[in-house]
Amino acid sequence: MKLSVLRDLYPGERRVALTPANVAALCARGCELRVESGAGVEAGFADALYVDAGAAIVASRGEAIAGSEVLLCVNASRDADLDGLSAGQLCIALMDPLSDSARFEALAERGLSLLALELVPRISRAQSMDVLSSIATIAGYKAVLMAAEAAPRIFPMMMTAAGTLNPARVFIMGAGVAGLQAAATAKRLGAVVEAYDVRPAAREQIISVGARPIELDLPTDAAEGQGGYAAEQGTDFLARQREQMTAVLAQQDIVITTAAIPGSRAPVLISAEMVAAMKPGAVIVDLAAERGGNCELTRAGETQQVHGITLMGPLNLAASVPMHASQMHGRNIENLLLHLLDKDARLQLDFDDEIVADTLVTHQGEICAGRIRERLG
Ligand code: NAD
After folding, report:
1. CATH code of residue 53
2. Cα 62 off chain centre by
3. Pair (283, 205) in one structural domain
4. CA of 51 to the centre of ligand 1 (A)
5. Average model confidence (pLDDT) for the chain?
6. Residue 318: which pLDDT band, with cuts at 50, 70 and 90?
7. What is the count of structural domains for the chain?
8. Are residues 290 and 330 both part of a single domain?
9. What family is this (predicted)?
């Protein structure tokens, strides 16, 4: 298989799709790799490291694309990120396929084969290819550091000659991959951590990272949807949830929200009134800002001061930790590529394989992935 790693065009993206270690592993398996010059520089991987690992460095995007069967970049969520690709070439990247599924009709007509990483199924054999978990891990960790930086207080309890400082109270809303990582990070910094999730299964996981689960008087029987994700809750449920959450929020110094429903707008867990009832100096980091926000007041990509509260809506936090985020992402892609190779190191797209069937959005002029076909009706 002839593969090329492109320099990402997506604004603010600093990750690279493969690190030199992944290149070495793929070369050892018989792949031929080209890397666009500078593709890994922002993540700390200079061209020379890719050469040592067995890749050829090419000067331009055009040279990287020409003659390659598979093109890799981190983020191809805009059509502009696919500029220069020709019919028959396969691009593997994040593509945000559940937000604007209609754009794939035109891309299918261009004859591109597009594999969207967001659609990797949540089955145990695909766990090592799950880039969403990698991204969420980094985002949960970084959200706590951002909150610690913005807060007017420190996290741990300190008994000093100048008196005792109480530990920060941190509350995590949505205890999936990002939320559990945020809870563990806040705990390591010495905070008193509580967490809540709509899925009953999250309770044990919250306890396992040293946090205290918050229970609400709400039905949990319909909370879990397909594939371990949360099911979308109705407006009544969310209204009752906000009502009961107001008192919990009013006691917190830091709130980190991560609640998401795949393919839908993020649920609104925090209303403007709830923000107004919080302690002055409190910080909210809304990790669902990209999907509309868990707080009604969140503005994607902005930090605001509201009633003395700092409200942050960061975007693409993984790109702010490009070295380790690329290391995780690259390993996920390496595992996926190794899965797609036949014994002679040729690309083999087997549509009887759930991993291929679920993730390949377009191929040979058709929309393939079931979840995207459903959305397009
Ligand atoms: P996610 O990013 O879709 O959502 C984040 C969290 O928000 C979830 O835990 C969800 O339950 C929660 N949430 C949704 N609506 C909520 C509401 N109204 N109130 C409170 N919380 C709400 O999910 P995720 O973090 O990617 O993963 C969710 C689960 O899937 C986790 O248990 C995770 O361990 C599991 N998982 C499995 C695999 C696999 O098997 N391959 C891979 C990754 C994650």
Report:
1. 3.40.50.720
2. 29
3. yes
4. 39
5. 95
6. very high
7. 2
8. no
9. Belongs to the AlaDH/PNT family.
* Residue 91 identity (one-letter amino acid): C
Atom of ligand 1 nearest to the CA of 260: 4
Could you give the CA distance from residue 142 to residue 321 in angstroms, rounded to a whole number? Answer: 8
Please say whether the beta carbons of 71 and 91 come within 8 A.
yes
Instruction: Give the C-alpha distances (Å, rounded to integers) separating 313 from 143, 194, 318, 374.
Output: 10, 21, 14, 31
The yes-or-no verdict on residue 3 having pLDDT over 90 is yes
Question: Is residue 192 within 8 Å of residue 171, measured between CB atoms?
Answer: no
Q: Which domain holds residue 25?
A: 2-130+322-376
pLDDT tens-digit readout, 367-376: 999 999 999 9
285 and 356 in a single domain? The answer is no
Give the start-end residues of each E strand in 241-328: 254-257, 283-286, 303-306, 309-312
Of ligand 1's listed atoms, the one at least distance from the Cα of 205 is 32
Note whether 87 and 106 are within 8 A (CB).
no
Query: Which residues lie with the beta carbon below 6 Å from any ligand 1 atom?
Result: 122, 127, 130, 132-133, 136, 173-179, 196-199, 202, 228-230, 233, 258-262, 267, 269
Quote the ligand 1 centre to 61 CA distance (angstroms): 37
Q: 288 and 294 in contact (C-beta within 8 Å)? A: yes
Do 258 and 344 have their domain in common? no
Q: Closest ligand 1 atom, CA of 259? A: 7
Q: Give exposure, 326-346, as e/b (b: 16+ Cβ within 10 Å).
A: bbbbbbbbbbbbbbbbeeebe
pLDDT in tens, 60-106: 999 999 999 999 999 999 999 999 999 999 999 999 999 889 999 99
- In the predicted structure, residue 205 carries a pLDDT above the cut 80: yes
Taking 90 as the threshold, does the pLDDT of residue 127 lie above it? yes
Per-residue model confidence (pLDDT) at position 134: 98
pLDDT at position 261, please?
A: 84
Task: Take atom 24 of ligand 1 and give the residue whose Cα is closest.
Answer: 176
309 three-state secondary structure: strand
> Can you tell me the ipTM of this complex?
0.94
The percent of residues in the chain predicted with pLDDT above 90, rounded, is: 90
CA distance 80 to 63: 17
